[in-house]
Write a structure and sequence with these properties.
Layout (H helix, E strand, L loop, with lengths): L1 H14 L9 E4 L2 H11 L4 E4 L14 H9 L2 E4 L8 H5 L10 E4 L35 H19 L4 H26 L5 E4 L5 H7 L2 E5 L10 H14 L3 E4 L6 H10 L2 E4 L14 H15 L6
Parallel strand pairs: 1-2, 1-3, 3-4, 5-6, 7-8
Helix pairs in contact: 1-6, 2-5, 5-6, 6-10, 8-9
Length: 305
């Protein structure tokens, strides 16, 4: 933590102040990526998420005002892999300034090694074909620390070369914080069960990193309720695995999950893939991942605080 604070102070000292009206505009498609960019940029960029806090990434529909955001943006960050295909319609807003707008697609980053798409999920790429990769890459802290965060810092430095030292210092600080969070997550999950049922298949990266096993999902496509046969299969799988709780998410209705949990005599536990700027425990990336680890521990039978 001392290294992180020292790096933050060094970055601020090296970069110097930036006039508010001169801040480069950065647009990310989803809240957790915007959260990471804000932690790297500090006061050197104005960062916006197209999907607002509390909304579902999968069911988001762009509004006319979002076109204006891209017209003014210097950097546009997408996840890819079918998660934010709706963003393709917005890129036309900046077609008249192709040299000014930097675009970063995270699923395409060298060294990311993305997981293959979950065959039960129905994400599509921009052409309408089934997505090749699982898009929920930000739920693996190590991929974020080692690949995503450096790519974001590099993109910020390209649109704001005067702030390069600042972004490098912020990156070092954030990487140290994520490393600390990873160690805490491992301690939090240690000694608990490993099998879980998610509301939808967002947590495969998290599960792969921390030795967990997703044995089912409530909704194979967000907003598409399971059939009676699928519900019966989930109940049977949960009973066989002695799953004590089903994961639910704040962006999606928990009604079906709670019905299944009631049939099992189990509970539900809230996890959050996107974060919440109004909740200090979910307002930064390291804090969000710690919060989710505690939620998983409860869902796995740990009763974590």
């Amino acid at each position: 933590m001392r290294r992180a604070l020292a790096a933050l102070a060094l970055g601020a000292a090296l970069a110097g102040p930036v006039r508010a009206d001169a801040l480069p505009q950065v647009v990310a498609t989803i809240p957790p990526i915007a959260m990471l960019v804000r932690e790297l940029a500090g006061e050197r960029a104005a960062v916006t998420s197209l999907v607002p806090p509390g909304a579902s990434t999968h069911t988001f529909e762009a509004q006319p005002g979002d076109m204006k955001l891209l017209e003014d943006a210097r950097l546009f960050i997408e996840v890819g892999a079918g998660l934010d295909t709706w963003s393709a319609r917005l890129r036309s807003a900046a077609a008249h300034q192709p040299e000014r707008l930097e675009r970063l697609v995270l699923i395409e980053l060298p060294g990311l090694d993305p997981l293959p798409a979950d065959p039960n999920e129905r994400d599509r790429d921009a052409s309408g074909a089934p997505a090749r990769f699982d898009p929920h890459l930000w739920l693996d802290p190590i991929r974020v620390r080692d690949v995503v965060a450096p790519a974001l810092a590099g993109a910020l430095a390209r649109i704001d070369p005067a702030g390069r030292a600042h972004y490098e210092a912020q990156l070092a600080a954030l990487q140290a914080q994520i490393g600390d969070a990873d160690a805490e997550i491992r301690r939090t999950l240690a000694g608990h069960g490993t099998k879980f049922i998610a509301f939808h298949g967002a947590w495969r990266y998290f599960a792969a990193r921390y030795g967990l096993e997703q044995i089912g999902v409530v909704e194979e496509a967000p907003g598409e309720e399971p059939t009676p046969r699928e519900i019966a299969g989930l109940v049977a799988a949960a009973r066989a695995a002695h799953v004590p709780a089903i994961l639910i998410e704040p962006q999606l209705s928990p009604r079906i999950a709670r019905t299944i949990a009631a049939e099992l005599g189990a509970g539900t536990v809230l996890v959050d893939e996107n974060g919440d700027p109004d909740d200090p425990e979910r307002a930064t990336y390291p804090a969000l991942m710690r919060w989710n680890a505690r939620a998983f521990a409860r869902a796995l039978g740990g009763g974590a605080p």
